[in-house]
Amino acid sequence: MRAPGHNVSPLLWVPTGYFTMALAYVMLTSVTAIMFKNLGMDNGQAAQYSSMLILAYTIKPLFAPIVEMYRTKKFFVLCAQVLIGAGFAAIALAMSMPGYMAVLMVLFWALSFVGATQDIACDGVYVTSLDRRAQSVYCGIQSLSWNIGPIVASGGLVYLSGKLHTQVFHHDPARFGPEWIDAWRIVFFIVAAVTLAMAVWHLRVMPDGAKAENTPTSLGGAARILGDAFVTFFQKKHVWKMVAFAFLFRLSIGFLEKIGPFFMVDPRERGGLGLSNELLGIIYGTYGLAAVLLGSLLGGLFVAKRGLKPTLFILCCAVNIPNVTFLVMSIFQPTSLFWIGAGVVVEKFFFGYGAVGFMIYLMQQLAPGKYATTHYAFGTGLMGLCGMLTGVVSGHLEQWMGYIHYFGFVMVATIPSFIVCWFAPFPHPEGTPDSEPDLTLPPERAELR
């Protein structure tokens, strides 16, 4: 009998695999912030707790070799998806318990490590099951499929939570508190059902994934490979300037990422715009994400035409300067959905346009060498660390400053980005072939975070 996944078209498992990865990631690191806010947490707690869930995705290169050592990559994908589905179902059930928040945080924390393992394993299946030509052919499908995840989670499911809260359970949409539990329980049951269905589907169609060359056979071997990767990383020319670039380029975005949606749903008397979850889902999860994707496409074409070095500072301006739209909206508090949506679209479009330069810089300047994939993962890990640290403190700073002063602070936080961009080194001439990337650890994607 033919083994499941044998000679099956990648179109049957690449889109569903990367969508499932994105759904778990966005639910854990972004949608939870809105849920915490709905349940009555203040901005400081909601931003802090949701940002802490980014840690597992930041440090996943450290435990990636374990996925390479045991069983097959498909085995880890399926186990992770079953655990994620069961975990979200457990979260929905736990929300009816007294003192449920402590239980939720333990479950969310555990699921973040399971989700990071799913990323590692699914990336590994992609890299080792497809040859270089097929990887290039399906790269666009991979990226598009991942980006459907935020549309469904930040857009559709946030929208659904608001609809359920008001039209099914007949609660006041402007009031935050335990009344939101009913709506969010249904949302988490839906995520659980979708993830478990994807596990059943992937059991039939996903290939096992091959072993990469130089795969470690023991924990000691994995530790030696990681140790050598760290040593060679810090032996790179101008490494500390590149580390500063990787950590600080998106500093202002880290401060804005959690607080932007909070500003949208907070009541106007507190300085917010008083939008419902339905409108937040439409503006952020649909129009905002479409603007990011369009900006990323045009930014990539811009870099391809003119090169990265002469355009990097322009791309930095694109990422940072449009953040002023939130400062303007906090001052004038517009009531028109057109102007509110336009502000978000402008900020998201230019973020997508400029962030392309960050990812290309990591690929072309930071990553090349003996452990290209691993060093690229270190760079994206620094980006994730910045997002986690800024997210943890962002809500507390906003509560202390108020929205107007906080968004002014975000504009000040753009200055380090300009500095590290201006002094960013280019040790590798553009257009020259890099060293062969290792497959010891699975590659990172230029995910929208």
Automatic annotation (TrEMBL):
Biological source species: Zemynaea arenosa
Chief place where the protein resides: membrane
Transmembrane segments: 12-34, 46-63, 75-93, 99-116, 137-160, 180-201, 243-264, 284-304, 311-332, 338-363, 375-397, 403-424
GO molecular function, a single term: transmembrane transporter activity
Keywords: Membrane, Transmembrane, Transmembrane helix, Transport
Protein name: MFS transporter
Record's bilayer topology term: Multi-pass membrane protein
Subcellular locations according to the entry: Membrane
Pfam family, one: MFS_1
GO cellular component terms given for this protein: membrane
